[in-house]
Amino acid sequence: MTFVSLLLLLWQAVAPQVAQTRGDELTVQMGFRVSPDTVLIGQPFSLFVKVLAPKGVRFEFPSGPDTATQNGVRPIELRGERIVSMLGDTAVALYHLVAWDIGTQPLKFPDVRVTFEGQERRPTLGGASVFVKSVLPADTSLRVPKPARPLIVLPVINWLLWAALLAGAIALVLLWWAWRRWRNRPKPPIDPYVWAQSEFARIEARHLLEDGQYAQYFTEMVDVTRAYLAGRVPGVRRSDTTSELLRAMKPRDGVEATLPGLLDKADVVKFARGDVTLDEARQAARDLKAVVDHVEARLNPESQVAKRLASAKARAA
What we know:
317 residues; alpha+beta; five-stranded antiparallel beta sheet; three-stranded mixed beta sheet; 19% strand
């Protein structure tokens, strides 16, 4: 602000004006200066206005230039706000402007209004103008314009493709999850008697007796019988020893009475490398199958084996 005040004082010293009064007539003198008077488009310049009048007058400076456009262009534009200062009976105003069209551009400021005791004077600023130079060469035919830039084309995302890929990925994940569930599904329980009969048939199909593997044949038949008893008889476990199994099972008379001897013989064969003949192995297999049938008929009277044994017993009687 100090710099602006110094400029205003300098303007007052350079272009002094004299206020005159003749009788009751209000005499007003005004001067202005455009600096610089030649500019380029967009280059700021200033308008200094100085008004001299008798003491007691009232000054009203316009707010800025006329903002009407010409052919879509606003030739003169006010930058910032006007600066007004009073130096005695002299009023000084400063405008910061910018031009947006080439050639001689009138500033188009409204008149300054000066009033005193009912009298009014309107010094005009209609002669204020600035010359705006063109940046084009003297011979415009030498100017080679740059080629027009292409329009900004925003990338178009194919949402349908991405949605299809996402749906396919979700479908694959669901299929994998369903396959895992199916593979790890709990297997339905197998009836112990059905399982025992299938295992007996599997061992027989290996023809161990024909190959001379009597001990292996005998021990595998005993292991199937023990597994069946653990699955069917309450209290019997796969990990039971022979004495624990017999104590939990409590074999009945008849064919079940042969079970203790068969289990003891199996322990000798497995842990003491005992020998088994062909006839002993065959007889043991028949007895073990009979024990399984007898236990199944006793614990499950509605089974087919129970009905078959009952029918055979009735025919024998």
